Structure formats: structure tokens, C-alpha cells
């Protein structure tokens, strides 16, 4: 058996203890809240014990109520104190809960930012964020309401059992054994619970992915006649989840039944021992009801943490997932300190110096890539699908770093500069731009916070989107829906282009930015690019000749290498692979260049 499968409940606690760090900043509040909870439990136990003792004294000798009156006074104090401590504990634990969840969410946000886009692997950022945020909610309950309760569950029964032993002698040890057995049940079943919890969670994850896929790809599925198959997949995944949930419920039910059995057995054994002691004259009968009430009080906190121990595996798994994100190393190290000083117009020379890159060791994607784009040059990056064009753009944005070689901006290695300083200089218009929920204005404002309206219209004009926005009833304040749902593909891209124009970066990188534009729009855009990017370095990853031929120069990539470079006309004349690529893409390679 692998060590992975031999963990016990103590191992389940490890990630939870490591994450306890989130409480570090709230240590004082944590101890105040825990102390209030303990005092609230103890005052409740004292009130119950005092009232039972007072009642039995009055029943035994109604004529002598002196001590009973004193006990009733103590009872009143205990009840008032109990109310006060309960209120204080509830207030402190809720304030702490919100602070804990804030801390966890910030840590997760930072972790996801460090991981994006490389470290997420095949998972989507939203999926990871969603799962991690749900885990943060789960853990908030644990840290804010459970850690303190667990400490109290361990400490207050000890105090109550101590009082019982003082009152009843060794009989009190029965209570101790009962409470210990109650806590031991879920503790020892922790690993089984963890496995079952994981199975349910994995099943739910599959079900969610299948359902989402069905919703997102519904049109494609209907057109391919796959609706029935999809229904079957959803049904099978649902049944799998139900089966696993049944097994989990069966175990939890058995656990609860065993717990009830332990409580009942403890009460019976205690009752029998107490009766024997009273009838044998070894115990004052007046203490009998108080002892029974104290036994109940010893079980209350233990019963309160029983459900928490039943969820130990789930909590541990949530803590592990949160730690995975919080501890994630940065995809690229942001250690550069050269902030490049004041920007000069005309800056923006890009150089790839013998760059090798691989996403996975042993599968090179860029192989000795070496080229320079002088400041202000307009270059088209051309190559077959998978040649490494997008990867080149991502290296320039420092989403990744080269395995060997260097990427330079104005002669400085990108790694020597803070990442934010690099990204401020380069605007990337990706293949599928993300439009944030909000309005046209709010999306432009994200590019340059506080940009004025005139600048926004100028950018929209340049991106050939101004006329469309003017026609919308709310103009700049028109809602764009979730990920620009109310925009066409071309409009989404033009909005991203407008953002890039607004930023006035020195280098513009467009990844097939013209893919969604019709022929006329594309030509107009090409002219706008030429005008607005005058004097700025531009790399356009393009397949279309109408885009390519506007470039000063073409970088022709083949299998991650720079196969050739020159003007479009030169490459057409001398490079058969280039001609073949354009022909293969059904592009009019012999399309006459615009004058
Ligand atoms: N995140 C990733 N993890 C692993 N491999 C990747 C990743 N992204 C891209 N690749 C691989 O790297 C190679 C180059 O991909 P890239 O996207 O740079 O090509 P491209 O020239 O832009 O292609 P296209 O024109 O189809 O967009 C491909 O083989 C691709 O499968």
C-alpha cells in the first residue's frame, strides 16, 4: 500500500493546522472568542447543576431553604453570565469569520494570479477560482466556529468531569470514558470519511463539467445529433454521485447510531453506579440529580464537535486544495528591479535572442528563435498552426520565461524589469479577448483607469467601433453582458483593440486579431493600425494576406524556428514553404498588393 493510503486522522489535521496561519493576525480575537465559548458552556453547566442541587435540597427538607436560596442566587448569576458570554462569543466569532474568509480569499486571489496562465494546466481559471472560493467558505466555518469549539469540547468536559469526580468520586470516571469514546468514533473513522468525501466531490466535479459542457456546446451537440448521448452521460454521472452519497450517508448514519449507543450506555452505567452509591450510603442523595445534570453538561460540547469530526476529511481536503493555490510558486519570478526610467517615444525594440522554450520538458516549442524587431517596425508573424506564434507573444508578455536565451525590450532582458513595468509597455490583443461584465465604458476604464470620454471615443474611432457604439441607445454605457455576450465576435475584438489603443503602449501584439472581421472592416482596421501605431512596434500574428502584406516584414516560423524573414513579396518569390502555407490556408497568395 502506498503511504498515500496509510494516513490516519492525525494526517488529515496537518493541512488544517498549516492553514491555521490565517488566524495568526486574529490571535487575540480567537482566544477571546474561545474563552467566551468555554465560559458560556461552563456557566450553563453550573446553572444546570446548581438548579438541580437546589431543587433536591428543597425536596429533601422544605423547612430548611437557607442553602437553597444561596444556590438560587448563584444560579441567577450563572444564567446572566451565560447569556453575556454567549452573546460575546457569537459577536467575536462572526467578526473573526469575515476576517478569516477575507484573508483566505486574498491569498487565493494572489495564488491564482501567480499561476495564470501557465500553471492552471488544463483547468480553466474560473473553475479553479470557483472551487477554491467554495473551499474558502467551507474553511471559514471551520476556523471561525469550529477550532474554538473543539478546544472547548476538549477542555470543558474535563472541567465538568473534574467537578463530577469531586462530587461522586470514581463514578465520575464513567463520564470521562463516555465522552472520550464519543469523540473517538468519528476520529478513527476519519480516513474512511475522507475517501468517501473525496469520491463524492470528484463525482460532483465530473457532473458539473459534463453539465457545463452540455450547456456551452449545446448548439454543436444538437447539430451533431449528440443530445441523447449527452443525456445518458448526465444520467450516468448523476447515478455515480448518488451511489457515492448513499455510501457516505450509510457511514455517517452508522456513526451517529454508534454515538447514540455510547451516550445511552454511559448514562445507564452512570445511573446504575450512582444508585448503588446512594443506596450503599456512600453518596448524599441530594447530589444525585445534580450529578445527572452535570453528566449531560459533559456531553454537550462533545456532541457539538461530533459533526465537525464527521467532516474532518472534507475540511482537510478543502485545506489541501487551498494550500495548493496559496503555496503555488510564481509561474515567472517577478524579481526584476530595472523600472526602465522615463519612456521615450520611439522606444519599443523587441529582440528574441536564441530563445528555446518548451511547455513540457522534452517537447520543444521554440527552438533557437533569434530575431530583432527595431522600434516602430510593423511585423507579421506567419506560420502553420502550432508553429509557436502565440507562444512567442506570450513570452513577450512574460506569461512564461524562455528555457534558454533572452527576450529583450529596448536592449534590456525582460527578467530584469518588474513584470508590471513590462506589461505596461506592451499591449496584447489575444485571439479570444475577454470582455468583462459591465459596459463599454467600464471595459475601457479597465484599460486606463480614469480615462476621459474624448480619449475613449478616439480609441473606439481607431478600432472602427465608434459608429456602432454611437448607434446603441446607451452609447458608452451600453451593457455588454457576461464576457461580451451581447457583442459579435468582431465587436469583442474591436473593443479589445480600442483598449490597446487607449493604453498607448510602445509595442502592440495582435494574435489573429483580424480573424472575426469582414474584408472591409479588416482593411479599415489595417489602415487604423498603421495610423495609430505610427512609430510604435507592432507584431501581428496573421494568416491573411490582406493583413500580412501591410507589414514591413514577415517573420516566417516553422516548427518553432525562424525559417525565413523578409517582405511578403520576397518570401512569396523565394520560399516555396511560405507559398505552400498560404495556398494551404486557401489564401489568395497572388492577391495583388494594395498601392
Ligand atoms: N499551455 C500549453 N501547454 C502545453 N502545450 C502548449 C500550450 N500552449 C500551446 N502548446 C503547444 O505549443 C505548440 C505551439 O502552440 P502555439 O499556440 O504557440 O501555436 P500557434 O502557432 O499560435 O498555433 P495557432 O496558429 O493554431 O494558434 C503547439 O504544439 C501547442 O499544442
UniProtKB/TrEMBL annotation:
Protein name listed in UniProt: ABC transporter ATP-binding protein
Domain of life: Bacteria
Domain spans labelled ABC transmembrane type-1: 31-314
Domain annotation ABC transporter: ranges: 350-584
UniProt cross-references to Pfam families, sorted A to Z: ABC_membrane, ABC_tran
Subcellular location: Cell membrane
Keywords assigned: ATP-binding, Cell membrane, Membrane, Nucleotide-binding, Transmembrane, Transmembrane helix, Transport
Species lineage: Bacteria, Bacillati, Actinomycetota, Actinomycetes, Glycomycetales
Membrane topology: Multi-pass membrane protein
InterPro entries per the UniProt record, alphabetical: AAA+_ATPase (IPR003593), ABC1_TM_dom (IPR011527), ABC1_TM_sf (IPR036640), ABC_transporter-like_ATP-bd (IPR003439), ABC_transporter-like_CS (IPR017871), P-loop_NTPase (IPR027417), Type_1_exporter (IPR039421)
One CC-aspect GO term: plasma membrane
PANTHER family: ATP-BINDING CASSETTE SUB-FAMILY B MEMBER 10, MITOCHONDRIAL, ATP-DEPENDENT PERMEASE MDL1, MITOCHONDRIAL
A GO term, aspect molecular function: ATP binding
SUPFAM superfamilies listed in its UniProt record: ABC transporter transmembrane region (SSF90123), P-loop containing nucleoside triphosphate hydrolases (SSF52540)
Family label: Belongs to the ABC transporter superfamily. Lipid exporter (TC 3.A.1.106) family.
Residue ranges of the TM segments: 35-55, 67-88, 142-165, 171-189, 252-274, 286-306
Amino acid at each position: 500500500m502506498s503511504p498515500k493510503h496509510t494516513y490516519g486522522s492525525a494526517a488529515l489535521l496537518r493541512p488544517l493546522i498549516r492553514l491555521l496561519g490565517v488566524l495568526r493576525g486574529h490571535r487575540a480575537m480567537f482566544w477571546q472568542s474561545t474563552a467566551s465559548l468555554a465560559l458560556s458552556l461552563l456557566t450553563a453547566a453550573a446553572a444546570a447543576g446548581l438548579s438541580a442541587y437546589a431543587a433536591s435540597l428543597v425536596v429533601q427538607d422544605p423547612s430548611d431553604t437557607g442553602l437553597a436560596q444561596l444556590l438560587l442566587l448563584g444560579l441567577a448569576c450563572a444564567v446572566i453570565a451565560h447569556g453575556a458570554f454567549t452573546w460575546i462569543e457569537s459577536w467575536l466569532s462572526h467578526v473573526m469569520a469575515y476576517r478569516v474568509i477575507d484573508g483566505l480569499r486574498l491569498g487565493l486571489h494572489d495564488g491564482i494570479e501567480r499561476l495564470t496562465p501557465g500553471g492552471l494546466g488544463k483547468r480553466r481559471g474560473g473553475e479553479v477560482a470557483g472551487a477554491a472560493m467554495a473551499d474558502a467558505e467551507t474553511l471559514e466555518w471551520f476556523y471561525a466556529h469550529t477550532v474554538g469549539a473543539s478546544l472547548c469540547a476538549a477542555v470543558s468536559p474535563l472541567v465538568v468531569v473534574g467537578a463530577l469526580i469531586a462530587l461522586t468520586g470514581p463514578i465520575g470516571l464513567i463520564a470521562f470514558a463516555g465522552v472520550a469514546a464519543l469523540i473517538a468514533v468519528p476520529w478513527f473513522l476519519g480516513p474512511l470519511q475522507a475517501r468517501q468525501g473525496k469520491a463524492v466531490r470528484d463525482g460532483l466535479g465530473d457532473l458539473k463539467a459534463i453539465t457545463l459542457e452540455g450547456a456551452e456546446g449545446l448548439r454543436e451537440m444538437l447539430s451533431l445529433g449528440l443530445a441523447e448521448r449527452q443525456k445518458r452521460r448526465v444520467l450516468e454521472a448523476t447515478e455515480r454521485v448518488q451511489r457515492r452519497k448513499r455510501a457516505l450517508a450509510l457511514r455517517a448514519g452508522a456513526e451517529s447510531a454508534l454515538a447514540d449507543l455510547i451516550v445511552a450506555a454511559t448514562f445507564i452505567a452512570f445511573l446504575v453506579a450512582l444508585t448503588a452509591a446512594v443506596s450503599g450510603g456512600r453518596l448524599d442523595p441530594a447530589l444525585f440529580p445534580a450529578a445527572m445534570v452535570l453528566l449531560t453538561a459533559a456531553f454537550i460540547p462533545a456532541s457539538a464537535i461530533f459533526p465537525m469530526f464527521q467532516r474532518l476529511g472534507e475540511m482537510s481536503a478543502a485545506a489541501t486544495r487551498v494550500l495548493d493555490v496559496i503555496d503555488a510558486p510564481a509561474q515567472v519570478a517577478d524579481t526584476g528591479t530595472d523600472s526602465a526610467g522615463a519612456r521615450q517615444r520611439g522606444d519599443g525594440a523587441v529582440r528574441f535572442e536564441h530563445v528555446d522554450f518548451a511547455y513540457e520538458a522534452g517537447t520543444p516549442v521554440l527552438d533557437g528563435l533569434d530575431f530583432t524587431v527595431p522600434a516602430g517596425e510593423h511585423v507579421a508573424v506567419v506560420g502553420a498552426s502550432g508553429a509557436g506564434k502565440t507562444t512567442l507573444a506570450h513570452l513577450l508578455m512574460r506569461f512564461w520565461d524562455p528555457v534558454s536565451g533572452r527576450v529583450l525590450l529596448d536592449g534590456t532582458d525582460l527578467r530584469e524589469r518588474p513584470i508590471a513595468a513590462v506589461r505596461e509597455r506592451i499591449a496584447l490583443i489575444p485571439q479570444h479577448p475577454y470582455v468583462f461584465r459591465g459596459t463599454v465604458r467600464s471595459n475601457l476604464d479597465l484599460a486606463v483607469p480614469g480615462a476621459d470620454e474624448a480619449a475613449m471615443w478616439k480609441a473606439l474611432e481607431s478600432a472602427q467601433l465608434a459608429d456602432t457604439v454611437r448607434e446603441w441607445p446607451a452609447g458608452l454605457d451600453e451593457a455588454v453582458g457576461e464576457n461580451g455576450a451581447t457583442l459579435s465576435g468582431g465587436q469583442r475584438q474591436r473593443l479589445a483593440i480600442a483598449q490597446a489603443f487607449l493604453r498607448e503602449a510602445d509595442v502592440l501584439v495582435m494574435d489573429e486579431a483580424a480573424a472575426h472581421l469582414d474584408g472591409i472592416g479588416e482593411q479599415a482596421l489595417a489602415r487604423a493600425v498603421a495610423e495609430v501605431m505610427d512609430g510604435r512596434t507592432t507584431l501581428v500574428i496573421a494568416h491573411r494576406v490582406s493583413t500580412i502584406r501591410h507589414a514591413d516584414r514577415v517573420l516566417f516560423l516553422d516548427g518553432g524556428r525562424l525559417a525565413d524573414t523578409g517582405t511578403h513579396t520576397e518570401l512569396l518569390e523565394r520560399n516555396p514553404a511560405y507559398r505552400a502555407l498560404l495556398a494551404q490556408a486557401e489564401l489568395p497568395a497572388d492577391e495583388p498588393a494594395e498601392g
